[in-house]
Structures are given as structure tokens and as C-alpha cells.
Design brief:
By secondary structure, the protein is mostly beta strands. The protein is built from one helix and ten strands. Strands 1, 2, 3, 4, 5, 6, 7, 8, 9 and 10 form a ten-stranded antiparallel beta sheet that branches.
């Protein structure tokens, strides 16, 4: 399997979704998974290989694109519409690719297990990230 392919223009937070804003610490595309770097308080792409060393307190989904130093809105939790790349009932996890979203089968030996959410349809992800603290 491979990371899902998210079309940035299709990323829309659902009604009642919890969001916050900050500053990008790298070039970010809407739909990518990010973390807030405690060293400079900026959002950067997250990947499951770096979780144990980067000190992720939480992960978020970028809701807009931004270059380093620009404003960035992130999804904390709730429904998010993506393009039709999901399988209803399937759970998705942080990938080993920076900012990527992958099915559970792609989380392998040496990767940290970071649950992102479950698809309620082919277009909507119920985003409820959990950093399990477990590395395979």
C-alpha cells in the first residue's frame, strides 16, 4: 500500500471541528500531518520515524498551504473532508513519509504508531489523533 494522495484544494474542516492557528516552520501543503516543534513553536511535517526523537506532544492536519514563516491553520480534531481517497471504516495512521497519511499496513518495524482517525465515508476522515507511545 502507499500513502493516500490528498488534493490540497479538497481539504475542508467540518462544522464544529477544532482548529488553531500558528506559523509554519517549513513549506506545508494542506492535508499534511504536522507537529508543533517545541524548539521554535512552529509547525513542521511529522513522520512516524521521528516521533520518539522529535518530542511530538500532538499531531495536527494542515488546513491550508504555507511557506516557512507564514500563517498556518491546523485541525486539532473533528471531521475533515478530503478528496475521494479514503475507504469507509478504514483507520489511518501517520506515515514514514513527512506529512503523509497511510493505512495501518504501512506502519512497520521501527515505526511509531500514531493513529490519525477513521474514515466515515470515501471523503470524510474523523480526525482524532493519538500518539500511542508504541514503536513497532
Amino acid at each position: 500500500m502507499a500513502d493516500i494522495s490528498v488534493t490540497a484544494a479538497s481539504v475542508i474542516a467540518g462544522t464544529g471541528a477544532s482548529t488553531k492557528s500558528g506559523v509554519a516552520g517549513a513549506t506545508i501543503t494542506a492535508g499534511k500531518i504536522v507537529y508543533r516543534d517545541p524548539a521554535d513553536a512552529r509547525y513542521k511535517p511529522a513522520d512516524n520515524d521521528a516521533v520518539p526523537t522529535a518530542g511530538f506532544g500532538a499531531v495536527f492536519m494542515a488546513l491550508n498551504g504555507a511557506s516557512a514563516g507564514q500563517p498556518l491553520a491546523v485541525l486539532v480534531g473533528g471531521n475533515v473532508t478530503l478528496n475521494a481517497v479514503l475507504t469507509a471504516g478504514t483507520s489511518y495512521y501517520l506515515s514514514g513519509t513527512a506529512g503523509g497519511i497511510a493505512p495501518r499496513a504501512d506502519v512497520t518495524i521501527g515505526d511509531a504508531v500514531v493513529f490519525l482517525g477513521t474514515a466515515s465515508s470515501t471523503t470524510v476522515l474523523v480526525f482524532k489523533p493519538i500518539i500511542s507511545g508504541v514503536t513497532l
